[in-house]
TrEMBL record:
Coiled-coil segments: none
Highest taxon in the source lineage: Eukaryota
InterPro entries, per database record: 6-hairpin_glycosidase_sf, Glyco_hydro_76, MUG_Protein
Single GO MF descriptor: hydrolase activity
Keywords, sorted A to Z: Hydrolase, Signal
Protein name as catalogued: Glycosyl hydrolase, putative
A Pfam family it matches: Glyco_hydro_76
Leader sequence residues: 1-21
Organism: Talaromyces stipitatus (strain ATCC 10500 / CBS 375.48 / QM 6759 / NRRL 1006)
Matching PANTHER family: ENDO MANNANASE, GH76 FAMILY (EUROFUNG) (PTHR47791:SF1), MEIOTICALLY UP-REGULATED GENE 191 PROTEIN (PTHR47791)
GO BP term, pick one: carbohydrate metabolic process
Length: 386
């Protein structure tokens, strides 16, 4: 008996040691991320406005599983809430797709340091809108993540305000639906519409007196999305539609495979229907087949030159794969999350600075920035929960 119980005990100890190492790696990543945090802009230097929402989200997600950083996270939420609207890049932001299919957000000259304006009221959702609908939706999800950690209704109210303003722009170009990329650029693309589904579904689970309204929005938007043709014959999602409303064949970016997974998992929680889980599993498995290398590490086709936007994408995929894994556990999802986190730490980290870069399989690409780093941190946080 003794050998058996002692080998059980050592297996348990090994598991505890692994879990401790995972939390400790995520802590190191958090400390490193904060070296880029600029309390006078409420954003993370070296990356853009919408990336800031994603840095805040990964911090909130870590705080949700690690009580020891909650006080730090609350401080960050409060600072970003009060000062980020003063660097909202609205006047002059522009989004384009280059000839190579790379997304490209351009900011006003001198942004953000030279364009600080008097702080607008952060409780007013208009202060968070910059004309790019996806940007505002990222902030909506970020404030929901902050609400989940703090229970602070100010953040949930802001997310609702953002959603309602975006909903007022529900499109008419393609199949009477969808959210345009920008108020002035009516490209019907996957990201703005997927984020809309996810935001509606997240709100449905948190705002009980309007749950049915948010469920109805999420269902309408998902039914529209599924019928557009953005999901291709392989089951993955291209970037968007042509002006004639057919799949434009632009790259299968990891974030477009990811956001819908979290959206459908949240929608299923608000209004259970196995078809949501079935669709999410189909997309997730097609995406892994398309984007993972033979070691299960996720890539985007632009590596290593993914600036300025696609540096953020893979972490978004993993964050949302975890939401699906919680709703519908699958060995493959656990393996992918573990492989990414392990490889990032071993192969994609500058061991002198602990900065995390763009190619999760390595070798480390110099230099990293708050976008590559926060994106990789998503995997280090996700692995704590699988
Ligand atoms: C909620 O968040 C707001 C904005 O950061 C802050 O001013 C307020 O003190 C928070 N409320 C509580 C109860 O912590
Ligand atoms: C983006 O595309 C628009 C046309 O859709 C064009 O007018 C504008 O010059 C482009 N901006 C950049 C920065 O390439
Ligand atoms: C929110 O800000 C916008 C733009 O400054 C303003 O027009 C609107 O009246 C404000 N809404 C509220 C409720 O204060
Ligand atoms: C589940 O969702 C699918 C796809 O949206 C829909 O066709 C079906 O009617 C739904 N089932 C129920 C029981 O609501
Ligand atoms: C962030 O770092 C990656 C990896 O080196 C690089 O490709 C990208 O250009 C950097 N982003 C910016 C905005 O400089």
């Amino acid at each position: 008996m003794a050998p058996k119980s002692s080998s059980l005990a050592s297996a348990v100890l090994l598991l505890i040691a692994e879990a401790t190492a995972q939390v400790s790696n995520a802590h190191v990543a958090f400390t490193t991320l904060q070296e880029w945090y600029n309390p006078s802009t409420g954003l993370w230097d070296t990356a853009g406005w919408w990336n800031g929402a994603n840095s805040m989200t990964v911090i909130a997600d870590l705080a949700a599983v690690d009580a020891s950083i909650v006080q730090d996270a609350i401080q960050i939420f409060e600072t970003t809430f009060s000062v980020a609207p003063s660097v909202n890049p609205s006047a002059g932001i522009e989004k384009n797709i280059t000839a190579h299919g790379i997304m490209q957000t351009t900011y006003p000259a001198g942004w953000p340091d030279d364009t600080i304006v008097a702080t607008a009221d952060p409780t007013n959702s208009t202060s968070w809108l910059d004309g790019a609908n996806d940007d505002a939706e990222w902030w909506g999800l970020a404030w929901i993540a902050a609400y989940d950690v703090t229970g602070n209704e100010t953040y949930l109210n802001l997310a609702e305000g953002i959603f309602n303003q975006i909903a007022s722009g529900w499109g008419t170009n393609c199949g009477n639906g969808g959210i345009y990329w920008e108020t002035t650029n009516h490209y019907v693309n996957a990201i703005a519409s997927e984020l809309f589904i996810s935001l509606a579904a997240h709100l449905a689970n948190r705002v009980s007196d309007s749950a049915s309204t948010y469920i109805a929005w999420a269902e309408e938007a998902w039914n529209w999305f599924a019928a557009t043709g953005m999901i291709n014959s392989e089951g993955t999602i291209n970037d968007g539609l042509t002006s004639d409303c057919v799949n434009n064949g632009q790259p299968v970016w990891s974030y477009n495979q990811g956001v819908i997974l979290g959206g459908l998992a949240e929608l299923n929680r608000a209004s259970p229907n196995q078809s949501y889980i079935h669709s999410a599993n189909t997309i997730a498995q097609a995406a892994i087949a398309a984007l993972a290398d033979s070691d299960h590490v996720i890539h985007d086709t632009c590596e290593p030159n993914c600036a300025p936007d696609a540096t953020q994408f893979k972490g978004i995929f993993i964050r949302n794969l975890l939401l699906l894994h919680r709703a519908s556990p699958h060995d493959l999802y656990r393996e992918v999350i573990e492989a990414c986190a392990t490889s990032i730490w071993a192969n994609d980290r500058d061991t002198s600075t602990n900065q995390l870069s763009i190619d999760w399989a390595g070798p480390y690409v110099s230099s990293a920035n708050s976008s590559t780093h926060s994106s990789a941190m998503d995997a280090l946080v996700a692995v704590i929960s699988v």
